[in-house]
Records
---
Amino acid sequence: MKRGSVRLREFSLPPLFEFQTSGGLRVAVARRTGIPLATVRLCTWAGSATDPPRKRGLADFTAGLLRRGTRRMRAEQIDDAIEFWGGNLGTAASTDYAALQVSGPVEHLPKLLEVVGQLVLEPAFPPREVRAAKARLAAQIANDLDDPAQVAGRAIERALWGDDHPYGHTVDGSIPDVEAFTRGDAVGFHQARFGPRASVLVVVGGVLERSVRAAVEASLGRWKNASVEGPPRLPARRSPALERVALLIHKPRQTQTQVRLGALAFAKGDPESFAAEVLETILGGVFTSRLMQAIRVDRGLSYGASSSFDSYLAGGSLVISTFTKTESTREIIEVALDQVAKLRDGGPTAEELSAAKTYLAGLFPLRLETNDSLAAAISELKLYGLPTDWVTQYRQKIGAVASEQIVEVAQKYLIPERFTYALVGDAPSLLRQLRGLVPTRVRPLSDLR
C-alpha cells in the first residue's frame, strides 16, 4: 500500500443490463428497488462545444425548445401530461452534451418514454415558442451580465481557451447570436447533432428488463440518423497564438473585484483526476482549505475562495475563484498564487491528505443516492466510455491517492507563472495595482454580451 493510502469499501451499483435499439441507441438500465419511481435520462453529443460559428448558445437554445412542442403535442399539453402522471421533465445543454430527463412513477414509465420519443424524434419548434425562447435567453444573459461573479465566469473561459475554441464561450452563448437565431437554425442543429449512435439512454428505478426494452423500442426504436456518429472532433488545446494575460472587464465604479485565476488541465477520464480531486479539496474545495485559511481566516481579504478542476471531452481547466475590495486585488492574487506554489513545492501534510480523502469518500455515496443523480453518473460513464469501476471503485481510488501523486499533479498544473487571469472591476483602479504583475488587456462589458 502506498504511503498515505486508506482502505475503503467498494461502492456497489445496482444490477445493470444493457441493449441497443434497432436504430442503434445504447440503453443502460439500473434496477433499483424499494421506491416505485423511475428516471429516464437521454444524453447526446450536442453540447455548446458543437455550437456553429457565430451561433454561440444554439445547442442550449435547441435543447430547451425540445419540450416546447412536438408534431402531436403543444407545450402546454406536454406539461399537463407530465404533471398528471406525477413526473418532472427537463432539457438543457452542457459543455459537451445535451440532456433530456424525465422522472415519475414506475407505472407510468411507458407513457413517459413515449413523451421522450416525441421530444427527440418529432420536435416541432413552433415559431411562437422560438420567439419566446429567444427573448427569455437574451434577457437571462443580460441579467447575468449585471452580476460581476457571472461576468468573471464568462471571462475566464474566454481567457483560458480563446474566443475561437469550442470551450471558449459559455453554454448560453451571447446576446447578438441569440437574437439572430431562427427556427431554421434550431431545426438544422437538431438534424445535424441528434442521433441514436451519438446518444445514450439510461433508465434507473424499480423496473423489469423486458418491460423497459419493449417500452424503449416502442418509443425510440424508429430513431435513425446515420449522419451522426459518436462524439464530435474537438481541438484539444487553445490556440498557441494566445498570450498569457489578465483579461480585465471594466465595470465602472465597482468597489470590489471578482478574481479568477485559471490554468488548462486534463480531459474527462484521465487517471490523474482522482489525485486532482484530492488536491482540489486541499487547495480550495472545502471551508478548511488552504485558500480559505490564507485568504479569509488569516488576512480577512474575502468571505470566500475556492478552486475546482473541470474536465471535458477534449480538455479541462483548473480555476481559482475569489473576490475582494478593489484596493486589495493585487494582494489577494499574490496570496492565492503563494498557496498554489507552496502546495506544488511542498505537497500536502499527512493530516490534510487524510482529511481530504475521508471527506471525499464519505460524501460520495450521498452524491448517488437519488435516481436522478445515479442516472446522471451512469450516463456519463457510458457517454465518455469510462469503465464501471470509475464509480464502483471511486472510494478505493481516492483512498489510494498518495502524497507523491498529489505533488506530481500539482507540478503539472499548479504553475503560478502560467496562470491566466480574469478580473471584473473598475479598470483605472485595477490597472495601477496590476502594473508589473502580468500583461493586462482591458475590455468593456459589452465584449461578453
Note: The chain has two domains: 16-220, 246-448.
---
Amino acid sequence: MARKSRRNVGLIGLGIIGSRVAKALRDSSFNVYVWNRTPRALPNFLGSPAEVAEVCEIIQVFVSDAEALFAVIDAFEDKLTSRHVILCNATVGPDATIEAARSVTEKGAKFVDAPFTGSRLAAERSEMVYYLGGEDDLLDRVDPILRVSSKATVRVGHVGQAAAVKIATNMLVAATGQALAETAAVVQRAGVNPVVLEEALEHHAVHSKLIDMKLPMMLQGDYEPHFSVRNLLKDVQLALALANSREIEIPATAATARALEEGVSQGWGELDFAAVMKVYQEGDAVPPQIAAEEVPPETVVNPDPPTDAVEVPVPKSEASAEEPDSETAEAIAGQTPAAENEREGEGAPMELARAATSPDENTPENPQPSETIVDLPPQDAEVLPPSENPQTEEPVSEETTESPEAEENPSREDRVPARGLLRRLFG
C-alpha cells in the first residue's frame, strides 16, 4: 500500500469528467489514486473507496446520482478520519447533498459541497467552474486541487446552497437548449439558410457560449455526448423537485422536462442534449406536444335582435393535442450500471416531470352534458303549431359545449341553438 503524502489526491468516478480531472491532476504532479465501479487500466487504480481513503485525505467524488454517492460513502467504511475532506462533485440537489454531508461527518470526516459546471471540452482544457459550499478553512485547503481543473471557483455559502445554484443554472441550460432547437426548426422550415441564423444570433442580445456550442451540433446533426439528454433530464427533475418543495411553479422547466423525457423514450438518452433537435428532423419522432388550452366557443349575436331575442352560440370544434406519453449508477453491492461515459446519471424519478405537467386529476375524463335550457317565449307571443311549418323544424341538440366561464361559474345557464323555435317566434 502506498504511503500518505500531501500530494496524494483521491478521485472516485471515472466518467467523462472524472477521467479528465484525474489526468489534469497527474499532469500537475499530484499522486492520483482512483476507483471506479468498473475497473480501468489506469495508474493507481485501487480496489475500493476504503483503499483510496487509506492513502488520500482529500477525495473528489464524481458519480452519477445520489444513490451512487451514498453507496460510495458507505464503502469508505471506517477509514475516514478527521483529516479527511470529501469533495462532493456530483449534482444531486441540496437535500441529498445535506444528507451526504451528515453521513460523512458522522464518520468523523469533513465535507465540501462542490458541484461544477463545464462539459467534456471544459474538463479537457481545465476550464471547469466549481460552486462551493462549506467552511472557509476547508475551501482554502482544497483550493490548490480544484484550481488544477478549473478556471474559477465560486464560494456560494453553506453546504447545500452550492447544489441549489448548480441546479438553478442547469434550468437555464435546459430551457436554452430546447428554445434553440425550436428556433432552428422554425428558421429551417421557413426556407432560410441556417448559417444565417448563426450570424444573426452572433449579434443578438441572447448570444451565449452555449448557443455557440450547441447550434452547430444541431444543424450538423452531431450529437456526440458532452452533456447527455439523460443527465440533463436528471438535473431538470431535481429542479422540479426543488421548486415543488418550495411551492414554486416553473412551467418552462416542466415543459422542457417533457421534451427531454421524450428524447430518452426515443432512445437518445446517451446522446448530447443537442439531440432535442432530432424531433424536428425528417424521419425522427414527432415533437412532443404541450396540451393546448380548451378553445371557448364563439358566440354569434344578431346585431339588431328583437327585444326578446335569444343569443344563439355557435359551437366551435375543440382544440386537441396528444400528450406524449433513467438507469441509475451501479451501487457497490452490484446494482445495474449506468452509462459509463457520463459525468452524471439519472436521479429523481421521471414521474416528477410528468406530475409537473399532468392535468388535474379531479377533472372528469368524460364530463356529462349539462341540462339543455331553452328560453320560453313571452306569454303574449303567438306560437304556431309544429305541424303548420314542418319544413322549418330542426331537432334541438341534447349536447352542450361548456365554456371555461361555465366551469368557473356553475350557476350560469348555457344556451343552445334552437333555430326552429326562433323561426316560429319571430317569423
Note: The chain is about 40% helix and 10% strand.
---
Amino acid sequence: MASIVDVPSWDDPRLAGYRGVSDPTALAEQGECLIEGRLVVPRLLDLARKSARWQGRLQSVLVTPAALDQLAPALASHDRLTVYRLAAEHWTSLTGFNLHRGCLALAHRPAVPTLETLSLDGLQCIVVLEGVSNPDNIGGIFRSAAALGADLVVLGPSCGDPLYRKAIRTSMGAALEVPYATTAAWPGALSHLQTQGFFVAALTTPPADVMLPDWTRPRQPIALLAGAEGHGLTPEAQALASRRVSIPMTGRVDSLNVATAVSIALYHAGWTPHRDTPD
C-alpha cells in the first residue's frame, strides 16, 4: 500500500504542485501535469505500473478521505507512492473548483516525439489535427482514437494540450495512453506522411471530392485530417490532402463538432477491432 500522509491545511508547502491546477501553462512549462477524478486517476496508477511511457513519472496523489477509501484497491500495489490526504473542506481553497471528485495526481510529463523523428512502420490509421485547441474536443478525439483503433494522433500548429487536466478527463484517460506526436512543419507534414505511404483524407464541409458513405478506403495506411470548428482546415492543408471527404448532413446545421466528425470518419474507415478491414 502507498504511504498515506495527512496534511492539515491547503497551504501546506507539500501541496505546492497541486496549486498549479489554476495555471496550466506554468504547470506544463515545469514539465508536469495534473490528472483528476476517481475514474481517471486509477488509469494512471495502472499505467505507472505497466507502461514504459509512465513508469517513474507519478509523483504523488492527493485525495479526500472518501476518495482514499474508493481508490484503496488501485493504490495497493504502489508501495513507494506518497498519497496526501486532505480534508474535503480545504479543497476549494487549494484548487478553486470542485470537479475533481476529491482526487488529483501529479506526474512528470513524458517526452513527446515529433512526427518527423517517429517511425511510422506498421501504423495503419492516424488522426492529424490542425488548430484544434478546445480541450473538450482534444479529449473527445483521443477517446474516439482509443475506442476506434487509431494508432497515433498528430498535433499540428495551435492544437491544444492532450495532458491538460480537462482534456485528460474528457478523454476518460485515453490521452494518457494513445500515442501522439507534434509537428511544426506545417502543412509540409502532410507531404511527409504521403512519402511514408499514407493516404491523407481531409474532413471538410461540402463541396468535397467524395461523400463519406461513397468513399472506399484505399489499400494503404490512412491519415484522417481534421481542423478546428469555425474555420475548419486551411486551404493550404486541403491542397495537400490526397482527397477531401465530407459527411452528409441534413442542412439544418453547416458542420459537425470536430470530435464527432473524427469519430464518424474513424468508424467508417473500418478500424474498429470487431470489424474486418474493408477493401
Note: The chain has two domains: 3-108, 115-269.
